[in-house]
Amino acid sequence: MLLFMVGKQQYNQPCRLAMALDVVGNRWAVLVAREMVLGPRRFTDIHAQLESASTDMVASRLREFEEGGFVRKREDRKWELTPQGYDLLPLVRALLEWSFRNGVSPQVLPTGSPGPSELDFHRRLLTMSAVALATTFRCLESNDMHELRIGELTATLQGYEQGARVTEGQAQHPASTLTFTRESFMHFVVFGTEVVSASLGGVEFDGDDAELVFDYLVDVLDDLRAGRTVVTSRGPASV
User: Which residues share a beta bridge with 73?
Assistant: First the structure.
């Protein structure tokens, strides 16, 4: 059982909310966890996605998460979420739902400020989708591997008894493939299918289960945008 967090900043209040914020309330903490949702990442890759964070800041958050049992460093020196780390995803989902419900929009970055590349931007949209899939109560009626292609970004989707897992990288012998244009995927995640069908290149299906997977994604992302109730998930048993 996690009794306290080892980070330097603590609220020191006998309150469950304050104790939770001791774990995830430090600056960059949740975003550091975000970078491992799509699978193990090297430190340099995690830091590269957090444009304004110093290397010391990212290293500190990883060290605190490691000491708390939320992440671990593998033999190949990549960092990954532990089953306890996957328990953070319903919290991340709640923040995403709050942002949709309250109309939170990305701010325009000041001139000269570092910003994400187009690839990184779509990786974040894919991460948001992965959070929704990992915390859904819906079951994908196919346990096969499926491939998602968004421009030059490729990911593997696999269903489990409850929810699904998305990892970055090609699927081995995918049962189906869904290919989005970059524009159609952005609108699909943020707005839904109505905008995708309107002159954005749409989605290409390949494989018998492709439309089933697409309909499943539609339902899961609709749930996220609508703020429907979800369940806690620690991810697949192999994590």
Answer: 79
Q: What is the CATH number of domain 16-86?
A: 1.10.10.10
**115 or 55, which is more confident?**
55
| Mean per-residue pLDDT, 176-203 | 77
Question: What is the model's pTM?
Answer: 0.84
Count Cβ atoms within 10 A of the Cβ of residue 106 and give its class: 0-12 exposed, 13-18 middle, 19 or more buried: exposed
Q: DSSP letters along 109-165, please?
A: PPTT-----HHHHHHHHHHHHHHHHHT-S---S--SEEEEEETTEEEEEEE-SSSEE
Phi, psi of 88 (to 5 degrees): -75, -20
In terms of Cβ atoms closer than 10 Å to its own Cβ (0-12, 13-18, 19+), residue 72 is middle
**Location of each CATH 3.30.1050.10 domain in the chain:** 118-226
| Angle ∠(53,16,234) on CA atoms, nearest 5 | 65
pLDDT value, residue 201: 60
Tokens of residue 220, six digits = 């899961």
* CATH level 2 (architecture), domain 118-226: 2-Layer Sandwich (3.30)
